[in-house]
Amino acid sequence: MLFSSLTFLFAFLPATLVLYFLAKDKYKNYILLIASLIFYAWGEPKYIILMILSIIFNYFVALLISKNRKKLCRKMFLILAIVINIGALVIFKYLDFGVSNLNIIFGFNLEKPGLVLPIGISFYTFQILSYVIDVYRKKVKVQKNIFTLGTYIALFPQLIAGPIVRYSSIEKQLKERKHSFVGFCDGFRRFIVGFIKKVLIANNVAILADVVFNEPRDVALTPIIIIVSLVAYTLQIYYDFSGYSDMAIGLGKIFGFDFDENFNYPYSATSITDFWRRWHISLTTWFRDYLYIPLGGNRCSKIKWVRNFFIVWLLTGLWHGASWNFVLWGLFYAIILLTEKQFLGKFIAKLPKALAWIYTFVIVNIGWLIFRVNGLHDLKYIANSFVHPVGETSTFVLDHFSLMPQLFFVVIGLIFMFPITKILFKKIREKTWGRMALDVVLVGLFVIGIFALISNSYNPFIYFRF
Amino acid sequence: MNNRICNRFFGVLLLAVFVFGMTTFVKTEDTISKKENRALNQFEHFTLENFFNGDFQNNFESAISDQFLFSEKIRTHYLKAVSNLPIFGIDKIFCENNYLVTVGRDNIARGIFNCGGNIIYKPHGRTDEEEKVFASNINKYNRINRLIDTYYYFVNDASVMDFSKNQKMVNYPEELVNKLKGNYHFDYLKWDNLDEYFNYFYKTDHHWNYKGSYQGLKDIIKLLGRNEDIQPTGIFTNHEEYFGSHARILNNYDYPEEFEYYQFDLPLHKTYINGEEKVYNHYKEYETHNYEYNRDKDNYYGYVYGGDYGEVIFDYNQPSKENLLIFSNSYSNPIAEVLAQLYNQTYNIDLRYYKSAFGVDFDFDNYIKEHNISKVLFILNPPYVTIDKSNQGLKEE
Q1: What is the tens place of the pLDDT at every residue in A72-105?
Q2: How many other CB atoms are found less than 10 A from the CB of residue A145?
Q3: In this complex, do B11 and A45 lie within 8 Å of one another by their Cβ atoms?
Q4: Are A435 and B82 inside 8 Å of each other by CB?
């Protein structure tokens, strides 16, 4: 089920809210767990078993780690948990990729299993690992109530597309949390902001991006077409994913949870290092805390540091998808970031802000090009078309004239990727009438978003496939 | 205090939105959208089987979308608003003296000429699926050719032509002549360029206009080996604005035209629609304005000429003459009743609706025997030969 679906808005959410707020505090987690399992089963009825097994397995393995006093045993159970959780991820997400590469490299004729990817497996696997590892590190107490642990793992606001919420950050809230009308309203405001980002901006700019990137050989490709569609995709992935995170954070707030921020205006960054401090923060900090630092981080020899860097970024790329372009995308950022850290960073810091921003935005767009293409052959074709255009821009415009109004959303997306709302609304918010006026605008846009859902069938979330 | 007021105000707004949305589940379900010309999705009963295969969930979302209070109006206004968003002068840069494409849902995007406001199909060839259906339909026609004297009249629509290059996407007449076998006769409506096309078709509707259909009628009479000259007595329009199918589907009401038709003196006859005696056309109602006008919905072409039914029998009671069987879609609407005066009984069959009208598939072999049919006329157009439903019930060789 998508947050930006009519089913969620008018059936699932109202029913869950009514049951949740009518229930006594001690039953609230049960309501959330049941609602979360229904939410998951709505999209993946068959994989609900996998989710339940995952909860049971990780509950017991964490108990075993916690109760065992022998370090070796604890370590063995931790390794078992990592192997099983990552193993499930590998089987569902990477097996086809592995088999097709074995077939190419060794000339085998192995059949691809073709397993359907369980929704959100990359997100909840990382959440589970953070819990088990933190139990091992004694950073958090083991959760003795399987239903509470189940509520954490399956919690529907962040289950399928993050942010990756660590157990440590909501440990106390799982046990006891405060609910207030103020929190409820603020949560809904945040949810609506995310909804508008997703439905009104991401879905509309996606139409422009998809025309070029879905079948690049079917359209005229000139530098201007490539740039416009690439910028459209750059905006799509930001508004789509950050919109989802906003909705997740907002829903969390409604139910009394405080999730950490996942985005901080990443496209206003003035270096790639800065960009990665602002983009998908929960993933980058996860890799930092659970992989980069345990590998030695930067407190080791330079060669090892470079190795650690490449391992982290290779895996970051692979986390996003089982395809060589994701690997290339990860390595692309490893090289850029290493270059910035070694020498380019100092130079960029001295540049005027506008130039530094242009440099960053161009690199990020190139990154998204590598990320978006359907395989390396398409990447080569599009790059080649940039130098040797295929067809005329006017042909493209005429053939796709119906899509031109979507350019309006590109312009809106470009404006609001900077923190101008913060500055603009700061003064308005100080007045009661100002806040009420903003609420009217917000709810008005929410209604328009609902109208868009009724009118458009185009509504997929990009981050589902991760 | 101020915070509390703001939050209460926000809460009331939210409640209003959610209550409005949830009326979907308590109101009576609508069954069809006249504007979109389609059946609306309705809520399915829950079963474990349809839940586990995902059908229940998919249907539930579609049903909410379709059953949402005022969903038809919401779609109309939303799509109209999107189509009116600024496009930063792109039309002026790229589209002068050229054709544009209007905003519509992706699968129904059509071309719109800026010369005179004609909305036409975006040109397209045949998809793989359409190729298969086309081959299957040819087999069906060839079986009929072996059984009876068969006549084919083909009406090319705008989809076969890329006017920007004046290039045919598919040459249906040539293909049909090459692929049809047996005892058949063939002709088609001839036009080769934009001006000729506009002469025969509406600006905003996919059908042929009064000139095109009259040309078709004359060609068909000749094709059937007859030499009668049926002359119209006049042209009529009530001057009400007419927005054809393309305008209605695209929600684009910028290019009104007038609906005109040729008037004919038809001899007395009886008409049976799906077995019941009725009047087929609504010329009288149109001429006297005796109908409720709705700009967004009124399909004058269908309403005035008579529309599409599984079976329409025009009985001119001339036993000395032959019985004719016509297979067609809406392209026969303006001409079937007029052509029928040359025959004893004319059976006009639209196979898209036959089964829903009679509960059984059309049985060609029995039908021609039972009704003593001596000639079969197909009035075809690109969708007719590429959509399976148009030939539902006919058997392949």
Answers
A1: 999 999 999 999 999 999 999 889 888 988 888 8
A2: 12
A3: no
A4: no
